[in-house]
Amino acid sequence: MILIPAIDLYERKAVRLFKGQYDQMTVYTNDPAAKAKEIEASGASWLHVVDLEGARDGTTPNLEVIQEIASSTSLKIEAGGGIRSIETIETILGAGVTRVIIGTRALEDETFLKEALDRFGSAIAVGVDAKDGYVATHGWTKVSDQDAEAFIAHLRDLGTASVIATDISKDGAMKGTNLELYRRLSALEGIDIIASGGVSSLEDIRALREIGVSGAILGKAMYTGAVDLGEALRTAEGEL
């Protein structure tokens, strides 16, 4: 299993939200690129970056920060937030990103998603953010009537290579992740599931590895010191 540390961007700062609420935001550093270098030095190979302003507004206000991270590290970056056009995908990939995460528009416009998958293949991942079992959109500010697990199965059928699946109720709460959800999703063949939201201990990481998800995203626990990143990386690889 690959452990993917996360940097969420807001006004060019690295922040974390509590359960996706923009009015419950903690700023961890004004220098996200420096944080990315620390993450690389700890042994990580991937980095998960979300432009929170972009996710909410459909824009890319933190693009320069993403470019800076890409140019100053050798990390493979998956980036999302506000990715709602083919041109934006091209721009993000051109900034040095390995994989672009489509969220809101993947649900709202299947034709767009198919075009993105056809043109960019495995460089496209879909972020599925679940609130009470249903897909949330627009930076988690709206909730659709689409069942999240059924939607992920449909994404698999469309040829999506990877899904970042987040249980919003767990995100930033430091109370563990939704193991039952990931156990069910890991049974889907033909798609990589990356677990996100609430990964807050080495035990969570070990359990996700044993379940068989392909990756897990580590956010708040890394920033608060609840989890040592080096130990987390070794746990994900099965060394601890």
Count of structural domains: 1
How many helical stretches?
11
Largest sheet: 8 strands, parallel, barrel
Ends distance: 13 Å
* CATH fold node name: TIM Barrel
Overall geometry comes to: globular
What percentage of residues falls in helices of 4 or more residues? 25-40%
Please report the total strand number as a whole number. 12
Q: Please, could you describe this protein's structure?
A:
The chain has 240 residues and is of the alpha/beta class. Helix content is 39%, strand content 30%. The protein has a single domain, classed as TIM Barrel (Alpha-Beta Barrel). Strands 1-4-5-6-7-10-11-12 form an eight-stranded parallel beta barrel, surrounded by eight helices. The longest helix has 11 residues, at 110-120. The radius of gyration is 16 Å and the shape is globular. 49% of the residues are buried. The mean pLDDT is 94.
Which helices and strands, and how do they pair?
Elements: E1 2-10, E2 13-18, E3 21-29, H1 32-41, E4 46-51, H2 52-57, H3 63-72, E5 76-80, H4 86-94, E6 99-102, H5 104-108, H6 110-120, E7 124-131, E8 134-137, E9 142-147, H7 148-158, E10 162-167, H8 179-186, E11 192-196, H9 202-211, E12 215-218, H10 220-224, H11 229-236
Parallel strand pairs: 1-4, 1-12, 4-5, 5-6, 6-7, 7-10, 10-11, 11-12
Antiparallel strand pairs: 1-2, 2-3, 7-8, 8-9
Helix pairs in contact: 1-3, 8-9, 9-11
Supply the key terms.
TIM Barrel; alpha/beta; single chain; 240 residues
Summarize the structure.
It contains eleven helices and twelve strands. It is α/β, with parallel strands linked by helices and 240 residues long. The chain has one domain (2-236): Alpha-Beta Barrel (TIM Barrel), CATH 3.20.20.70.
